[in-house]
């Protein structure tokens, strides 16, 4: 059995089509706790074309960079007795969660928490970089400003936040305008699993392309639906990688392109725990399998963008 601490090195490959652009998924989250400053700084250093912040809201309307509003697993909130009374159960996006939620904390309160690695059992070395503070959208924009690295911002759970009295799309547009990023269509992409918020963002003056994200739901991405998305002003389609690894994956990318939609795939991760079974090694879930082969197959579909936890691996394996 090979050592999980000795990663399989990427093999330079020539993509069958144009090389996809590389988005650092939650920053370089394969090496640092997701959405930490260190993760974004490393992503920039490793040559990512863009970084992906997920955006949720605080009680006082700050756009907080977290993958979901439940912060139980990615912060030390459980170790703060002063916040014990805020632990609760909510239904978010149709799923019940028990924990602590960003919309119940002010930004000042959130700043007293420290970040934690989400997957310490798979990526134990990442935990050495625990204890950073959360970031807001403005903090990341300031970091990106001088770099030329682009922004692919995902707006999370707009329906849930609407139930809490927030219009997260409007808040996002306001913050982008205030930061001078609303009129940079060459550097800003906006993504969500809920299409209406994308149009709210555009109506608010953000000029970047709009990307609609879907899971493994074939009925949502039939050619007719793709044409309707494009006709409604959506510019891109983001799909889970299993949709491209299945029969018809390349046809989906081609159909999207025929409708004028750019294409994105999530998420490229090298560990056995995340690889399609055809590309896993015989080792433990934390061991890296034959990820270069899986990623080559994805790139060969002609997909335009890939989300990767390890931007350096993606750069080496997929960039011409």
Automatic annotation (TrEMBL):
One of the GO BP terms on file: lipid metabolic process
Pfam families (UniProt xref): GDPD
Region span, Disordered: 1-30
Signal sequence segment: none
Any one annotated GO CC term: periplasmic space
Broad EC category: hydrolase
InterPro entries, A to Z: GP_PDE_dom, PLC-like_Pdiesterase_TIM-brl
UniProt GO MF annotations: glycerophosphodiester phosphodiesterase activity
GP-PDE domain sequence ranges: 20-318
SUPFAM superfamilies: PLC-like phosphodiesterases
Alphabetically ordered keywords of this record: Glycerol metabolism, Hydrolase, Signal
EC numbers, comma separated: 3.1.4.46
Reactions accelerated catalytically: a sn-glycero-3-phosphodiester + H2O = an alcohol + sn-glycerol 3-phosphate + H(+)
Domain of life, per lineage: Bacteria
Hydrolase found in the keyword field: yes
Family in the record: Belongs to the glycerophosphoryl diester phosphodiesterase family.
Protein name (Swiss-Prot/TrEMBL): glycerophosphodiester phosphodiesterase
Lineage: Bacteria, Bacillati, Actinomycetota, Actinomycetes, Micrococcales
């Amino acid at each position: 059995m090979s050592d999980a601490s000795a990663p399989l090195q990427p093999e330079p490959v020539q993509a069958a089509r144009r090389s996809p652009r590389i988005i650092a998924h939650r920053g370089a989250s394969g090496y640092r706790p997701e959405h930490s400053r260190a993760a974004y700084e490393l992503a920039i250093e490793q040559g990512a074309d863009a970084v992906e912040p997920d955006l949720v809201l605080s009680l006082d309307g700050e756009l907080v960079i977290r993958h979901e509003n439940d912060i139980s697993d990615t912060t030390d909130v459980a170790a703060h007795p002063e916040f014990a009374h805020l632990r609760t159960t909510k239904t978010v996006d149709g799923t019940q969660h028990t924990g602590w939620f960003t919309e119940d904390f002010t930004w000042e309160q959130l700043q007293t928490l420290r970040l934690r690695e989400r997957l310490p059992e798979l990526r134990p070395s990442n935990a050495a970089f625990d204890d950073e503070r959360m970031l807001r959208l403005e903090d990341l924009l300031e970091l990106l400003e001088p770099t030329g690295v682009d922004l692919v911002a995902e707006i999370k759970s707009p329906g849930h936040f609407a139930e809490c009295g927030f219009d997260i799309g409007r808040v996002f547009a306001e913050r982008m305008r205030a930061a001078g990023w609303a009129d940079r269509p060459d550097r800003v992409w906006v993504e969500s699993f809920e299409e209406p918020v994308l149009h709210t963002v555009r109506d608010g003056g953000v000029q970047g392309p709009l990307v609609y994200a879907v899971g493994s739901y074939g009925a949502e991405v039939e050619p007719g639906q793709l044409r309707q998305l494009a006709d409604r002003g959506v510019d891109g389609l983001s799909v889970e990688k299993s949709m491209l690894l299945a029969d018809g994956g390349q046809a989906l990318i081609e159909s999207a392109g025929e409708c004028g939609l750019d294409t994105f795939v999530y998420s490229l991760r090298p560990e056995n725990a995340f690889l399609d079974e055809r590309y896993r090694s015989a080792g433990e879930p934390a061991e890296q399998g034959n990820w270069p082969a899986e990623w080559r197959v994805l790139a060969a579909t002609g997909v335009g963008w890939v989300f990767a936890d390890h931007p350096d691996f993606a750069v080496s394996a997929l960039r011409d």
